[in-house]
Amino acid sequence: MDNVNHALVLRIKELLKEKNMTRYKLAMESGVSHSTLKNIMHETVKDNLLSTTILIANGFGMSVSQFLDSPLFSEENLKI
After folding, report:
1. Which residue(s) pair with 2 in the sheet?
2. The domain 4-77: what is its CATH number?
3. Sequence-ordered list of residues with C-beta below 8 angstroms from that of 24, at least 6 positions apart, any chain
4. Among 37, 35, 5, which residue's Cα sits nearest to residue 21?
5. Cβ(56)–Cβ(26) under 8 Å?
6. What is the pTM of this model?
7. Dmax of the chain from CA atoms?
8. SS3 label, residue 78
9. Cα separation of 14 and 6, whole Å?
């Protein structure tokens, strides 16, 4: 079981690989600062804002519902 922050990191890593993107490009495409993205990826942010998640999803060219449509975010896989 993962917490939501860890699931977010895993999903970002999965999509970066799938879309052959760098974190820098994601930061540029999403409007999320590189330092914020770095903090998310290193899990130093305790509670990620939904608005940040929406921006990240947009950076991947997808809606937030498409971004969250992953087994990583199913309730049975998360520790909430």
Report:
1. 78
2. 1.10.260.40
3. 34
4. 37
5. yes
6. 0.86
7. 33
8. strand
9. 12
The packing angle between helices 34-41 and 23-30, to 10°, is 120
Kindly give, in sequence order, each residue whose CB lies less than 8 Å from that of residue 58, ignoring residues fewer than 6 positions away.
29, 30, 31
C-alpha span between 44 and 67 (Å, rounded):
21
Q: How many CA atoms lie within 13 A of 21 on its CB side?
A: 19
The answer to whether 11 and 73 have CB atoms below 8 angstroms apart is: yes
Q: What is the pLDDT of residues 16-46, one digit of tens each?
A: 999 999 999 999 999 999 999 999 999 898 7
What confidence category does residue 1 fall into, taking pLDDT thresholds of 50, 70 and 90? low
